[in-house]
Each structure stands twice: as C-alpha cells, then as structure tokens.
Amino acid sequence: MQAQAAIEAARAAQIAASGQAVNATLLTVLVVAFGFALLVALILLGYLLYQRNRQQAQPQGKWLPGPNARWARVGDAPRPVSLPQGDPIQQLVQLELLRYLRQMNTAPMQPSLPSRTLQALPEPEDEDDSLW
How confident is the model at residue 105 (pLDDT cuts 50, 70, 90)? Predict the structure, then answer.
C-alpha cells in the first residue's frame, strides 16, 4: 500500500512538473514575442524620426529673389489657382463692363446732359417802394 501511494505521488509530481515546464515555456515565448514587437516598434519609430529630420534638413530649393520674397524658397512659391469657369454670358457682360470702364478712363469727360445756361430772372418792377 505504501508503495502504491509512493507511485501515485511520483506520478502527480511528474504531471505537476510537466505542467510547470509548459507554463514556464509559454511565459518565456510570450515575453520574447513582446520584447521583439517592442524592439520592432522602437526601430520603426526611430526610422520615421530620422526620415522626418532628414527631409527638414535638406534645402527645398533656391531662395526666391527680390525684396518681397519673405524668406521663401523657389519650391514654396504659390501656384496660380485656376478659377472655376462661370457662365459665358456673365463673362461677356464682365468683359463689356471692363471695356466700358477702360474707355471711360481714356476718353475725356464729356457731360452726358446738354449744358444749360442759367438765365437771370427778370427783376420785378417796384410798384410800391413804401412797403420796404
């Protein structure tokens, strides 16, 4: 009986030892996988920061000339914005208005109404000077 109990205790100890070994192995694998993922994340973050600093350090082009360049570079110059195409009739009206305004600026000013001369009012005849 005592031998049988010793055999059962040894078997239980063997099962417990194998369970602990599996547990320790899985825990080790998880720690190594987490460490590897953390290492990859740090390397990727460092690479992205390196790329960002390298792009900022590189000159983007030559400086714009002139007193109003405002420290801008050639590549930073704003590109002309294409305006949306409007109604053709509205465009013709605007062009005609522009032509009319230019014509007004170049032509001498002429009065649009005929000039009227002021006529002197006839003086009333003083019939009775005693009122004043």
Answer: confident
